[in-house]
């Protein structure tokens, strides 16, 4: 089985970037160990603190965030970091070549029930035109990412990562502690019957979104459709990368959810790079996610990503409904 570092060298990845990836993965192994220890490691349950998202932080959110922060700030290649659990940019080294953003623990609501959880990360080159430690460093569209990945802490710990080429999957080998290549090129089937959405939010959706899911649940064209929802985007996207399907988190009428729940910088962008690298598509209201120019660290985007034709059908439906509504209004 091939090991990670020789593969990155073969892919001609910059040496400093390889060292930085190694730093992130060292933190992920420590998190994987704590996760496997569960209550024995005292990582279950909540803190009394609220993060910038207005969510009560889980103990493991805080532990994972601190582990990644400590290790990254020790790395000279890092100019600045951003995290779901940090309100602002955390400055690193003035001459660092890269900036890193991460969701230290994705699927927080699954922690106390031993469900699937993960860590999502993304790396960009530092912008030479703005100060190394300011928020504008992170105002780069997703297609500027030089590396994106997640570690899924499940029955086995898996790393899925791209440095711009294929989306590859590695398994953490507990016998020698390294990630070994287990899937050299993940390819998403173009079509699928599986979809992932939190249907309980139906009441908050706009009519066109409701209309699409009404069709999905009743129209003969969509017979045999199957719903899967892991409550951890990293787990749902891993299933999509492994056997196809579509992940959707629409905008809705709840306060704060005007753009849905998924954060652009450290959730949507890295997962979009992996999905596109595996032949799928990743959109926000029909627009390519990787072309969006971020305007704030924790901004959210409505998401539809996965099997290309499945996502295209959804976007076409929403586009047609929006068009119908606009023509109806203009003729009234
Ligand atoms: O509670 P809901 O509506 O099912 O939302 C689940 C979604 O929220 C998330 O858990 C948000 O991520 P965090 O756990 O990192 O906050 C996603 O992973 C998941 O897809
Ligand atoms: Mg998350
Ligand atoms: Mg999180």
UniProtKB/TrEMBL annotation:
Substrate binds at residues 106-109, 198, 261. Pfam families: FBPase, FBPase_C. Its EC number is 3.1.3.11. Keywords: Carbohydrate metabolism, Cytoplasm, Hydrolase, Magnesium, Metal-binding. It is an enzyme of class 3 (hydrolase). GO terms for cellular component: cytosol. Pathway: Carbohydrate biosynthesis; Calvin cycle. The keyword Nucleotidyltransferase does not apply. Residues 12-183 form the Fructose-1-6-bisphosphatase class I N-terminal domain. The keyword Ligase does not apply. Its main location: cytoplasm. Mg(2+) 1 binds at residues 84, 103, 105. It is found in: Cytoplasm. One of its GO terms (biological process) is gluconeogenesis. Belongs to the FBPase class 1 family. This is Fructose-1,6-bisphosphatase class 1. It comes from Marisediminitalea aggregata.
